[in-house]
Write a structure and sequence with these properties.
Two copies of one chain form a homodimer. Chain A is mainly alpha-helical and about 150 residues long. Helix content of chain A is about 60%, strand content about 10%. The first copy, chain A, has helices at about 20-40, 45-55, 60-65, 70-85, 105-115, 115-120, 130-149, and strands at about 55-60, 85-90, 100-105. The N and C termini of chain A lie far apart (about 45 Å). The first copy, chain A, binds a DNA duplex (30 and 30 nucleotides) through helix 1, helix 2 and helix 4.
DNA sequence: TACAATTCAATTGCACACAATTGAATTGTG
DNA sequence: CACAATTCAATTGTGTGCAATTGAATTGTA
């Protein structure tokens, strides 16, 4: 009689959904690196810029909500992007608590180089179109749960 | 005539697969935190312990391959787990370059508390069983690509 | 209107991640 | 055997992430 499962099976990494999620996320970000190096951005800086390329101007709270990041992560990162001249940081007149982040002309120009990246990355994936769509749908379903709070 | 797409659409966060992966990974790890706090482990320490609960003894290279982590991350983390008494770190006799990490009795005992965690986490997910299986399969397909190198 | 509660970004402290380098140990090769 | 190349873990330096706290600004309420 074979007896190869036990109450400890749940503790095997291969039986957990969180681990491949965690590992995959880091592997994909790593795949972006050579491309992002060309425009001197880290992955986190890149997704902040993506929001600005869409919105032109957002406050830190909105940015954090979009990216699931808090001010502890964003504040130093935004200061760095400001020092690179890609954005400006100014307090709102209406409410001095709010910090408004605005794309500069240099930031806008970076978009021209960045637009090449998604295409280059797309070729790196071994998923079918259907798998991509499925993965996307499932991940956003999980994220939706987080957003509800 | 509506003209609401452009060559910049690829730069919208919602059109990228990497972002929900990155965000989801962090959100799920965050969901583990209250449970891991009870046994005083971080998520990364937890997955290292999971390997040891399975293997009893591994070297740093193997551990890194299993977890997609390098010695820069593992060395300080293993020293911390050693100082907690959960594992020992010894050089291999056969090859002094190799560091062998071995589970201690205390580490083995922690397994009894850890075994409750996966069950508690499972209840936190809003995915169907099918979605869970699908997600798992797709993520490991992507990871397989990384493993090939 | 006072003033308590709330809402912001910033700060602090800790724990990863990871690229790049270092230095010791081992292996491969002439 | 000598010694160059390789393989390890450790170290260094930079950049996140995030919980918890702080302090200024605003809002809600007695």
């Amino acid at each position: 009689m074979i007896m190869d499962d036990s109450k400890y099976d749940v503790l095997k990494i291969e039986n957990q959904l969180c681990f491949p999620l965690y590992a995959c996320s880091r592997e994909i970000v790593k795949r972006y690196k050579p491309f992002l190096d060309q425009i001197d951005l880290t992955y986190t800086q890149y997704i902040v810029m993506m929001v600005l390329w869409e919105e032109k101007s957002v406050n830190v709270k909105e940015l954090g909500a979009r990216l699931y990041l808090d001010s502890g992560t964003l504040t130093p990162l935004l200061k760095k992007l400001e020092s690179k001249g890609l954005l400006t940081r100014t307090r709102s007149d209406k409410d001095e608590r709010n910090l408004i982040v605005t794309l500069t002309e240099a930031g806008e120009q970076l978009k021209e180089q960045a637009v090449e990246i998604p295409m280059q990355i797309a070729g790196c994936t071994n998923l079918t179109a259907e798998e991509g769509v499925m993965l996307y749908r499932i991940l956003y379903k999980m994220l939706g749960q987080s957003a509800e709070k």
